[in-house]
Amino acid sequence: MIYDLREFGRRSQLIADVCVVGSGAGGMTAAMAVAEAGLRVVVIEAGGWVTPEHVNQREADMLPLLYWEAAGRTTADRAIRLHQGKGVGGSTLHNLNLCKRIDPKVLASWSGLGRLDAGTWDQLFEEAESLLGVCDVPAEGVNRHNQLLRQACEKLGWRWSALRHNRAGCVGSGYCELGCAFDAKNNAAKVCLPRAVDSGATVVHHAFAVGLDYAAGRIGTVQARSVDDRGDFGDRHLTVQARAFIVAGSATGTPALLQRSGVPDPDGQIGRTLRIHPAVVAAGEFDEPVHAWRGIPQTIECTEFLRFGPEDGRASPRNIWIVPAFGHPMGTATMLPGHGALHRQFMLAYPRLAVFCAMLHDGSRGTVSSQGETGVRVDYRLNEMDAHELAKGLQRLAEGLFAAGARRVWIPTPEPMALTDPNKLRMLQDLDVTRMGPTAVHPMGSCPMHDDPKRGAVDSAGRHHHVRNLWIADGSLYPTSIGGPPQLGIYALGLHVGRAVVEGLRG
Question: What tens digit of pLDDT does each residue of 364-398 get?
Fold first, then answer.
């Protein structure tokens, strides 16, 4: 059953075998695996239960429903925007459905994962792809925006490929980031939630996990409070008692919950190794309409400047992943630089703009810390190498846009820079990208896996090293940045951790 905590009594209690905190790709998949094994499961989720009937494709309505802080969350210094999802289904409600396996070279670099060898990863990826119905995007589904990136790559000799998605019955409305009114996303809410509920799981939404009650080496209960879509807390309190707990509150929410709950961390492995894939963009203005907001977003990727192998060397890294990126009108208007007449000039050109994004496979490490009783603080600064690499990525974006036929390229510096000469792009490498308002949508790595407790918060089954009935099942498990879309790996880890919990309770 699915319930709203705001409709409970002032103080309520539920008892389960397993309590799952968070219902995104990892949490809901783990809950499904545990429930289908015959165990009693309670899932608590801070966001709401947003069904296709609620999705109206209006930014002012959907952003507060689907994103923390209405997509206004930032790092502590406000330098980087952090877009993170909430709701029953987590970020799978608003993401762009990109499903890509973690590169084998990245997996090979992750030591100390005895229960996750290459064969196990392959099996988990295959199962997750089958579960989600991952498939190729048909040729007719590649909109002009993505065609422009492909044309640029072909002209410049850059490596590119088509991305695979988990969507079925897509009509190409282009509003994926605001949820899907057509129920075409094969996401956690559509695929995993029904299976979990059919197997007896209870899901409680608008329930914010305030703390885990830790004593004598175990978690006994989790305390939750009612919260509305604006983030304001109500007067409903829920206690969930369970034999085991799975925390899947994202790479920011999970470490913050563990910290404010006083969960042991003797080796400092919680919240100290955050990666976020920070990204910058450049916009190309074309003579003919692009209508980039229409159709399926992000079906083409450029990996020419993305390398994972040690043979490339850290002295000359290639850590940039390039994809198209575009915003809907209100989001675009709020993110574009400039004021008055200059801003109006941008918006008048909106139908003729294409935007390419350079996303960094970051080696920089940020931190997550709890703030007050419920808050999260994220501190993150690019190291010198990463800042230089991201600036070089900006240059590649401009090169690509000109190669695709843009007559002018806009760089969103504080005073927007308009470029018309493709031969004068080298100076972009010297820009301070931290002043360009980078955006990050892939937080990960803040509670890394490793079988050695001095090198990871949890072992390779996702089990906490110092609290034996506590597991983690979200992107915080990644030991490093992965340099690509993280959701498929998180679904895979949800299956892996869910089964490990069943094994742990029955062993």
Answer: 999 999 998 899 999 999 999 999 999 999 999 99
From the candidates 165, 237, 442, 464, which is the catalytic residue?
Answer: 442
Burial class (CB in 10 A: 0-12, 13-18, 19+), 371: middle
pLDDT digits (tens, 9 = 90+) for 423-445: 999 999 889 998 888 999 999 99
Q: Enter the tokens of residue 98.
A: 């990109």
- Compute the distance between CA of residue 496 and CA of residue 101 in angstroms, rounded to an integer: 15
**Distance from C-alpha of 274 to C-alpha of 474, rounded to nearest angstrom:** 13
Q: Indicate whether 98 and 112 sit together in one domain.
A: yes
Distance (Å, whole) CA 74 – CA 89: 22
Domain range for 468: 16-136+175-234+249-274+442-506
Phi/psi of residue 69, each to 5°? 55, 35
Chain segment 311-326, per-residue pLDDT in tens: 444 445 689 999 999 8
Residue 277 annotated among the catalytic residues of the structure: no
> Are residues 264 and 281 located together in one domain of the fold?
no
Same-domain status, 50 and 192: yes
Residue 4 lies in a domain: no
Is the domain of 358 the same as that of 482?
no
